[in-house]
Amino acid sequence: MKKISIKNLKELKAFAVKFATTLKGGDVVGLVGDLGAGKTTFTQYLAKALGVKKDVKSPTFIIMQILETGTAAKKNGINHLCHIDAYRIEDEEELRLRGIEEYLQKKDTVALIEWADRVPSLHRVPGYKEITFTFGKGEERILRVQ
Amino acid sequence: MRILGIETSCDDSSAAFLEVRRDRVVRLEQVVATQAIHAKYGGVVPEVAAREHSFTMPLVLDELTKKITGSQDGRKLGEQVDLIAVTAGPGLVTSLKVGIDTAVSLAAAWNKKIIGVNHIEGHIYSNLITGEQPKFPALVLVVSGGHTELLLMRDHGKYKLLGATRDDAAGEAFDKTAKLMGLSYPGGPQISKLAMNGNVAAYDFPRPMIRDPHFDFSFAGLKTAVRYFLRDNEAKLKDEQFKADVAASTEQAIVDVLVAKTIRAAKQSKVKTVMLAGGVAANRKLRETLAAAVAEKLPGVKFFEPSLKYCTDNAAMIALAGYYQAKRRNFDDYKKMDVKIGWELGRT
Asked: Which ipTM did the prediction report?
């Protein structure tokens, strides 16, 4: 596990850009952290790094949105970023019922799940990556990557 | 015209029967999936199943058939219907698909016209259920758990997106600050209730982008500001007056941004009508503040707000939006109907 201190938005952006280069199609990434910890902001930077043109809004209400990536990412086999928000998910079964499960481990798609701690079965996904966001002092955030 | 409306874009399955004569709704019957309906048909079902549209939609249609025909014979409902209007997007793919598949099957079996309606357009038309007509151009503020948008409406069906949230929706800002204060989901109505006993000027929370020249919104920063504030004042959360003051100040910050941008956009586009739509349109503070601001700052401009009953997702608004599209003969081919998960109204 890697522990990183993020002091400001600029550092969060730099981390997201670097993290994006490690991704490949089929990857599943979970984000864990409390309200305001920076999960959606991180996702916005990551999406931008993958060439997504649309504004990435919080999908809390809609639960899932599929974003088209840019040409560079597509050359690396990532055609879509599937942005999922499990904040309103009360039962893992809902992911299947709502048709979200099928977007996990899709060959040309990176799936990113906010509030991943609400979906414990994600830990059984091969190669599953998880980033945990906690609050430090002032605006600082501590990120743990595994 | 008699319309069957079907809406399944998010959590609730709903169906409505609408009879409209010369733009006036003369009959409206609506059924929304509730625990009561489930109990009636299949006993109490777990929350998860209640949210599964493929399970609830047939029950909702059965109930509507009974209301309209006095029987359980679906063919009799078909005899009463001229048009089927169904939400085609935006929303969750699986949820939308259940609604569309249902509508397509019925259109084929009954040999009826079909129209795929944009969910946001449905919210806009919830304003016209009373029969009152807007003067165009109109400006619409759409605010819900998933949307915060300013749309210029030049005529029926003609939209231009002026601005939208870049992160959290206004409804989400209500729900998440409520959660930070320890209130349960959905927190919006609870914040408003608490706020009634609070001082709106107690704390000066940020009004993100309020003075920016564009019409986009951002509420994520407000949420984080409230979070920092509560972290620094944790002990006070036991005090009911403190909580009421935080709720009132938060609500005021959200309402201030929404109203300021709406008024400015209305002036810039020289509109004749301002309309409020979406789930957060039920917020009393927002209704009162926006109505007062329109009256004071936009002389001669009409203000529309949907009745509280039709603020949340419902099939009646979808049916009415379908009616106005049918007037323009804007029908869809049932063989080619598809889900439009990211359908944005007025994006050019």
From this structure: 0.88
